[in-house]
Amino acid sequence: MPRYKLVNGERVQLTAEEEAARDAEETAWNNGAKDRAIANLRAKRDQLLKDSDWEVIMAKEKGSTLSAAFKTYRQDLRDLPSTVADDDTAADVDAITFPTKP
Predict the structure, then answer these.
(1) Residue 8 confidence (pLDDT)
(2) CA of 53: how far to CAs of 71, 86, 94, in Å?
(3) Mean of the per-residue pLDDT values for the chain?
(4) Which among 86, 79, 87 is positioned nearest to 98, based on CA atoms?
(5) For 41, 43, 78, 84, which has the most beta carbons within 10 A of its beta carbon?
(6) pTM (2 decimals)?
């Protein structure tokens, strides 16, 4: 199916070269889907770790230690990226369940 572009307000069909360039752009975008999903996973994980840093600080200030459940939660967050397998798709990465904060 041909694609079109607007030139001076007129609809013009893409040339063969433009079609090939557009196909290459779309292929590159699709090939990067898993990398973008992993970056999103890491960003969300990093934010959850930052959000829970205050627990660590408060425990140190009080001279106590974190609960085992909270230590496990933070370790599970740190381990999340390692759960991505080489053959996982972007959809698989997007479907990863984050640990529940205790």
Answers:
(1) 96
(2) 11, 31, 25
(3) 92
(4) 79
(5) 41
(6) 0.75
